[in-house]
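BUG: 3D viewer hangs when loading the predicted structure for this chain

Environment: internal workstation, default settings.
Expected: structure renders.
Actual: progress bar stalls at 90%.

Input used:
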Amino acid sequence: FRLAFAAGGCTRPPLVRLTLVARASASCSNSTNTAAAAGLGVRHHDGMPRYPAPTVPGLLRLSDYLGTAVFAISGSVTAASSGMDLFGATAVGLITAVGGGTLRDAVILNSSPFWVKETEYVVIAVAAAVATFFAWPSLSAAGVTENTPLLFWGDALGLAAFAVIGAQNAIRAAVPGIVVLLCALFTATFGGMVRDLLCNRPARIMYSHADLYATVAVSSGAAYMLARQLGGSSSVRILCGVVLGVAMRYVVNVFDVRAPTWSAAMVAKPKSPGESD
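Structure tokens produced before the viewer hung:
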């Protein structure tokens, strides 16, 4: 700022310029750095390493890869069972695996889909879908089903991991809490919903003929947000979201938990072809 004062008998007081902005800025910067170094009020990073590593965030990346493969397997089996050829089964497998994250990034968060830079997700999904298309008939003849324990636990882990990663991406974009939950939900479920629609099946997350799925995704995202709000480290947040999601999928499956619906008498029956009003 500028400070004017009278000196002696001068008719025009000299001006003394005091430049304090830079000093104040440097002081604030030093304070911030000191607080960061001390770990005061600084949030842990909401993310994971670029590739799997022997840490909790690194294992989240590995779970993401596993979930991508399992979701692609599910999409390929559903598509092939609906009569689609190799291309159709592969396309549906890819959409099932990356469709939720694509919606989250391109539509909600207004950014490039994650797989544009992380192309390994496309490779994993396509490879899993193609391999499943050729191998599933033999596996099915040997008694393997979509409900086999390996695929069930892979799906449960993938669902929880996708939900947590969706919440992380939304938090980094600084969107409101309700949008964070929507990103967790869409990341984990939208690909499967598109799969069902493409294969002319009722969307799994919309009907009670299948166990709870969307509720688990939202709960995983909410657990991550709560742990973050309480000051938990990155590892604690991830564990809270993933463990809760996997545990809920197990409980829902064992006890056959369904969402409430109207009674059969209240539900309108679909009209048969050619039936008039």
